[in-house]
Amino acid sequence: VQLQASGGGLVQAGGSLRLSCTASEGTFARYAVGWFRQAPGKERNFVAAISRRDGSSTPYADSVKGRFTISRDNTKNTVYLQMDSLRPEDTAVYYCAAGPSVIQSALASQAAYPYWGHGTLVTVSS
């Protein structure tokens, strides 16, 4: 499956952005999807994930809890990451990843996702 991440841009602190991750195939509902980010000079880290099909499991990194919301629309083969109350430290390249066999306990693990999209840059100015 091919993934396309979009929606990044420049926003002031306190603002909002919505990222989208769209898949190339219609069986996207079978895939769990995770969002990860990599700030300049730092390693890539987990942000949020959503389980396959009904998306009933949605773990978040502590740093984004209460500010970011992940959701999915299987009819559009798309997973969204709504980012509110953005902070300068949220500045990073954001990547989405998908996996067909990701168990709930592994949703935050990069190694669980075999398919990755190109990133989209989010820049939050102070």
Largest sheet: 6 strands, mixed
Low-confidence stretches: none
Form type: globular
Q: Helix share of residues? A: under 10%
SSE order: EEEEEEEEEE
Q: Overview of this structure, please?
A:
This protein is 0% helix and 45% strand. It is mainly beta and 126 residues long.
Short description:
0% of the residues lie in helices and 45% in strands.
What are the salient characteristics of this protein?
mainly beta; four-stranded antiparallel β-sheet; about 130 residues; six-stranded mixed β-sheet; about 45% strand
Sequence-ordered SSE layout with sheet pairings:
Elements: E1 3-6, E2 9-12, E3 17-23, E4 32-38, E5 44-50, E6 68-73, E7 78-83, E8 92-99, E9 115-116, E10 120-125
Parallel strand pairs: 2-10
Antiparallel strand pairs: 1-3, 3-7, 4-5, 4-8, 6-7, 8-9, 8-10
